[in-house]
Amino acid sequence: MNNCYVVMGVSGSGKTTIGNLLAEKAGVPFLDADDFHPPANIEKMKSGQPLNDEDRRPWLFRLAEEISNADGGCVLACSALKASYREILASGPRPVIWVYLEATKELIRERLKERSGHFMPPSLLDSQFEALEVPKNAIVADVSKEPDEVVQMILSESAERE
């Protein structure tokens, strides 16, 4: 595989869980965009402030570089909430397959209450949904289903598109 899957959605949608499982099944490296945030971004989110476009831009270009350098493909878990962010991520030579993890705000809110050790507080959830621009031409995955089922659907649909 030479493509890079970008597993996207709001915080708590399951990007890391689905992304790790997808990477394992596809036999490619998994990258978590959260690992590439500069310390200032993490501190801003920890303090309850949402990131703005200016905060995100250097981070997105760094991720685009990671995608470009992923020989043999990869899976990247990244919120990629806006079309302009996705344009940056797809700006390199490697083809990108977008996977949008879709869920209700209620489901996400419940998941965030149960999650511990993450720098983004649940109080920022509304800002995530406000910023979300649902992608066109993405594989849409209903994350109320079990992770194995979601990943199988993603792999089946991406095979049909090739």
TrEMBL record:
<dbReference type="InterPro" id="IPR031322">
    <property type="entry name" value="Shikimate/glucono_kinase"/>
</dbReference>
<comment type="pathway">
    <text>Carbohydrate acid metabolism.</text>
</comment>
<dbReference type="InterPro" id="IPR027417">
    <property type="entry name" value="P-loop_NTPase"/>
</dbReference>
<dbReference type="GO" id="GO:0046316">
    <property type="term" value="F:gluconokinase activity"/>
</dbReference>
<keyword id="KW-0067">ATP-binding</keyword>
<dbReference type="InterPro" id="IPR006001">
    <property type="entry name" value="Therm_gnt_kin"/>
</dbReference>
<dbReference type="GO" id="GO:0019521">
    <property type="term" value="P:D-gluconate metabolic process"/>
</dbReference>
<dbReference type="GO" id="GO:0005737">
    <property type="term" value="C:cytoplasm"/>
</dbReference>
<keyword id="KW-0808">Transferase</keyword>
<comment type="similarity">
    <text>Belongs to the gluconokinase GntK/GntV family.</text>
</comment>
<keyword id="KW-0418">Kinase</keyword>
<keyword id="KW-0311">Gluconate utilization</keyword>
<dbReference type="GO" id="GO:0005524">
    <property type="term" value="F:ATP binding"/>
</dbReference>
<dbReference type="Pfam" id="PF01202">
    <property type="entry name" value="SKI"/>
</dbReference>
<keyword id="KW-0547">Nucleotide-binding</keyword>
<protein>
    <recommendedName>
        <fullName>Gluconokinase</fullName>
        <ecNumber>2.7.1.12</ecNumber>
    </recommendedName>
</protein>
